[in-house]
Write a structure and sequence with these properties.
The protein has 404 residues and is an all-beta fold. The protein folds into 3 domains: 145 residues, Sandwich (Immunoglobulin-like), CATH 2.60.40.1930; 148 residues, Macroglobulin (MG2) domain (Immunoglobulin-like), CATH 2.60.40.1930; 78 residues, Sandwich (Immunoglobulin-like), CATH 2.60.40. It contains 2 helices and 29 strands. Strands 3, 4, 6, 7, 9 and 10 form a 6-stranded mixed β-sheet that branches. The radius of gyration is 22 Å and the shape is globular.
């Protein structure tokens, strides 16, 4: 639930939406590293999330992925968003960063922050679903406010637009097995948002430009009421590493099915390096005339992300001996992060360091006996983190995680 501040304290208009708790609530919002999943609607239709709960750094002159989805009785609405760039307590027309006139359940955009040094500082961000202006009250609608930090020199992480599933369709249909080349992920299950990002130390593979590779995926269906449903599988690889999955980068799509197999080809000239792969399964998708976007709200299904190596002989492969020493799970996490050793004679742990997405050291955990299995991250805000493990044999392993 959001934390509403008095108008006098925040100096911003506070819209009121009578049916905000059930009609057009904003359930999921992701903007760069700001991740607010499964939000609980406020009865007034307005929520302010303080910086201690959710925030992100945004560099002037750079673009960031923006995904927002609705929920409740009616999960569709017109979407608007503003950032108070000049920090004057109002959201002007010139400060509108997103507008969508379509009556749809979710929106994905790449939002560019103007290259203006006068905008640097902590600024109010407002999102409205089902309304017109930033201050308009209405019967049906919802408004959320956040604080974002506009800066000039913060690291620019490679963040991808988020996929979501409707709350009442979690764990109905989801990816059970995914295989591509030497990468095999079986019985992967479905977490609370039906999205999983598997770091390269868990699953990865190497493929070369100009070559073809086998791919296989199958689903799991739970609940007798949904017997007979089939869906569509699709696979994208961010070939140019611009943090977006374009239509040209969709390398595989299936007809309605329970499982699908085929061959994908890595285009000649694809830059050598680590690339993000996304596979998505959706009940409607292309099967019932949908479009199956890699982002936003699906109908029922799940999405998995992987980091794969294309024509790369360093990085993933060079770090195999170190990265295979430990398994870090779950990912994404809610509270407790678990670490276990792997291999026939795994080394112990000397220390674990936790960093935020801008490289700041948050905490260091020392181990006297080398047997550390878990630690609590429940007090940390949602976002991306780096876990650095130093083993007793002196090797270092890095793992990227998402905190919900």
């Amino acid at each position: 639930m959001g934390f509403a501040l008095p108008v006098a304290a925040q100096n911003y208009c506070t819209p009121y939406h009578q049916n905000g708790a059930s009609i057009n609530p904003i359930v999921n919002f992701a903007f760069s590293t700001l991740l607010n999943f499964n939000a609980t609607p406020d009865s007034t239709g307005y929520a302010f999330y303080p910086e201690s709960r959710f925030t992100t750094n945004l560099n002037i002159g750079q673009s960031y992925s923006f995904t927002v989805t609705g929920g409740g009785q009616h999960s569709f609405g017109w979407w608007r968003a503003w950032i108070d760039y000049n920090d004057d307590g109002t959201f002007d027309t010139s400060e509108q960063i997103m507008i969508d006139s379509l009556y749809e359940g979710s929106v994905y955009r790449q939002i560019k922050i103007p290259n203006n040094v006068n905008f640097i500082g902590k600024r109010r961000l407002r999102i409205v679903c089902g309304g017109n202006g930033p201050c308009d009250s209405s019967d049906d609608g919802y408004t959320q406010d956040y604080i974002v930090n506009i800066t000039q020199h913060a690291p620019h992480p490679l963040i991808y637009g988020m996929p979501f599933e409707p709350e009442d369709m979690y764990n109905i249909l989801y990816i059970d097995v995914f295989r591509i080349n030497t990468l095999v992920n079986s019985q992967s299950g479905c977490d609370s948002i039906c999205y999983s990002y598997y770091i390269d130390s868990q699953f990865s593979t190497r493929m070369d430009p100009g070559e073809g590779y086998s791919v296989y995926m199958s689903d799991v269906m739970s609940g007798a009421n949904y017997a007979g449903l089939t869906g569509t599988f699709a696979l994208w690889i961010d070939l140019n590493n611009d943090s977006e999955f374009s239509e040209a980068e969709r390398l595989f799509v299936s007809d309605p099915c329970y499982s699908a197999a085929g061959t994908i080809y890595i285009p000649s000239g694809t830059p050598i390096g680590i690339h993000r792969l996304r596979v998505r399964y959706d009940w409607v998708g292309l099967a019932l005339g949908g479009t199956l976007s890699p982002y936003g709200l699906g109908s029922a299904g799940s999405t998995q992300d992987y980091d794969i190596s294309i024509g790369h002989t360093s990085g993933i492969e060079d770090n195999t001996s170190a990265d295979n020493q430990f398994i870090v799970y779950p990912n994404p996490i809610k509270d407790k992060l678990c670490i276990k050793t792997s291999g026939s004679a795994p080394p112990g742990i000397t220390s674990i360091a936790l960093y935020n997405e801008v490289g700041q050291l948050l905490n260091t955990y020392l181990s006297n006996n080398g047997a550390m299995s878990s630690f609590d991250l429940s007090n940390y805000p949602a976002g991306f983190y780096l876990v650095n493990i130093v083993s007793q044999n002196g090797e270092t392993s890095n793992y990227k995680i998402i905190k919900q």
